[in-house]
Amino acid sequence: MPEETWTQKPNGGNISGEREEPDPAITPAIEEDEQAIFFEHESWNPATAWIWSATKNYTGGNWPGQNLTYLGNNVYKWTYTGTDEIPEGSKIIFSQHGSSQTPDPGFDFVNGGYYTTSGYVKTIQPATDEPIVKLNPKGGIFKTPTLEITATVSNATSAWYSIDSGSQISITGSSATFSIGEGVEFGKTITVSWSATGPKGTRTGKATYTKQDPNAATVWTIYYDNRNSTSWSNVNAYFWDNATDKKYLGVWPGTEMTFDGKLYKITFTTTDDIITPMIIFNNGGGDQTADLAAVNNATYTKSGIDPAAITNVGQASDMKIYARGSYIVVESPQASYVSITTIDGRVQTREINEGINVFTDFAPGFYIVDSTKIYLR
């Protein structure tokens, strides 16, 4: 959190007193397929974690994040309850509910990682004898002509992988390395599936990888609902990459947002791969939000991302919403907004114009567009 951005820092919140020691203390442990981290501190209560990637915050989106569970013996644990795979390159900041914290720009997220205020110490490995194939990387976006993937087998007598439902390729020994993406167009998603069989049975899994044009520009659009939480006379947005400290909307207090009668809006275009996007909204006169993880097409209030923002603002009546193959189509009698929610709860705000609006940038899967559930093939 860059110090030069603050006119005032957010209140760290209430901090409770003595910790209650579990009897007996709980041994730090992690299950197979669980996403969790551990933190050791002799006094912080509560201890909180703020975890984010280039595209999402995994701890609620409101600083200082989520409370960790106290296991005893000065050790805390946080477990992710969402459905996303927290990607490599994600960051963690621990704090005492925001009043004291570990250093910016955060520690690297390691699943099963055990941390102190000095950083990563070790990894707590899952104790399991179930068969599994672990893919590295575990999915996500790549911007190179091809991507090399390593499949590592554990607790299995046989295993295979396949690419986009192709032939099953046996994994000989404990691992196999292969490439994907050659000849694949930018914007396409590749699915790698796997199966492993051992004494405990057979398990299957998969990961998806999206090939993106490294030179393609990304249009960032972010909204702010100023009506109830702040009622500022003007709203500025200060946007930066916490990993590189590069500013995208000028120096503090940033760029004034445009009011369209319902929401404030800011838009900019960049070819950068922003690693840790962050944003602060402010009135330019001393009042501001906390450091918030920036999510493209999201709507914010002073407290953070507001999933109910579109309902509160109001939509055009008589809209027709449906899927056309891999596209979302919205027919509207007037200019308005729609909210598009993914199956794991991420919400985007999209402007719509009068007439037919077609959104082509969504991956296959289920979505809720306003209250209409659709499936993209």
What would your notes on this structure say?
- The longest helix is centred in the C-terminal third of the chain and has 5 residues.
- A hairpin with a 2-residue loop joins strand 27 and strand 28.
- 1% of the residues lie in helices and 44% in strands.
- The chain has a five-stranded mixed β-sheet with strand order 4-5-1-8-9, with no helix packed on it.
- The protein is mainly beta and 377 residues long.
- The chain is globular.
- It starts with 35 loop residues before the first strand and ends with a strand.
- The N terminus is likely disordered.
Q: Briefly, what is this?
A:
With 377 residues, this protein is mainly β. The protein has one helix spanning 309-313, and strands at residues 36-40, 48-52, 66-67, 69-72, 75-79, 91-95, 107-108, 113-116, 119-123, 132-136, 140-142, 147-154, 158-163, 169-170, 175-180, 189-198, 201-211, 218-224, 236-241, 255-256, 258-259, 264-270, 277-282, 292-293, 299-301, 304-305, 320-324, 327-332, 336-342, 347-352, 355-359, 365-369, 372-376.
